[in-house]
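#structure-requests
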Amino acid sequence: MAKKPHWEYKKYKLAFLTHNGESLNTRAGAMGKKRLQKVLPASALFLAGLLTITWSCTQKEPIKIGLAINLSGQNGATGEDIRDGALLAMDQINHTGGINGKRLIIITKNDKGTREGIIDADKDLIDKGCIAIIGHSYSEDTMIAYPYVTSRGVILFSPYTATSELSGKDDLFIRTVPDTRAYGRAIANLLSKRRAGKAAFLLTPSNKSFCEDMFHETKKYFKGAAVPVWFRPGPDDSLGEAVKELIKTGADAIILVTDEVSTGIAAQKLRNAGFRGGLIGTIWAQGPTMLQYGGKAVEGMTIISPIYPDKDSKAFLDFSAALGKRFNIKPSSKSLRAYEAVYILSEALKKCPKRGAISPSGLKAALLGNEFKGVLGTVRFDKYGDVIRPIYEIQVQNGRGIKKSELSWPEK
């Protein structure tokens, strides 16, 4: 008896991909193939396979960018803001033709804010073929990722890392925010304008690289006294104890080098304790969560940041409307920076050679050799990949950030 023909449908797969870059050859696919074999003649199966092969071969391989951020614990909401801003940019870029006709895919990985999680996330993204990784959420996390990612020949592109430990290096690390040297000059400039004689700093080891750098760089340029006060977020009232220490310093101004939640709560505690001096926050605290936790206590507070979109501009209004429609959230500093980062990488990738594989050196050259315009203004980089953009004094007024002055340009 002649053997029945045996049909295999596993060599050729449709290349549909999710946001996470994973194949959508779904569970239903395998079941559907079996049913198909029962109802279609062999000739129809052959034709279906041939069409699948032809379709796959005519598609351009997508360009993959990794997004490695902390989506766990207290900082998970911040990570979600970052992810949503990046995915919105991806959707818009693909809707307008992608990158030189190639679809862009953002693959998101939760680094969990741990050493093991950071390396595992980056390894997975590199293994999946990402040409660049946007990350990580904090300077401390980026310092863990930096040697691994760059040694694998992949661009590490950061809208969130300010530590000066990575400044002035000819490597594959590129950032869209100023470093702590620039922030230090800006804060010292502001303290001088306000004639402050003593400044106290609230610092946390959860982002030690950023905090230590911010304190030392400001102290380098500030002519008055600078006093550090450390606290570790937790169930005990370590923040309350730190506030008492801040008050004891007798400082004219207090700089809160803390996240959105801690900054808002610290402002409340300081005002309730009777402190009437100047409160200064950093880009780390910039966002609606700080306003939510700080309430009236953050009215009049100053934020030192390069992020000040023109909220009446069409670009910002379009971004705000699109983000609200897609994710039902309001813009934050985090979502804006992620959105900007994806667009900058996209524009740089468009300038890379259209034939052949895109090399890290080619992408780096495209980034460093061009200016990029977006919702947050013009961005350019120096020869080391450190950004050149102004830093602003932004004051909270009636629950909104109002630009008061430009404090300094990074010295390049």
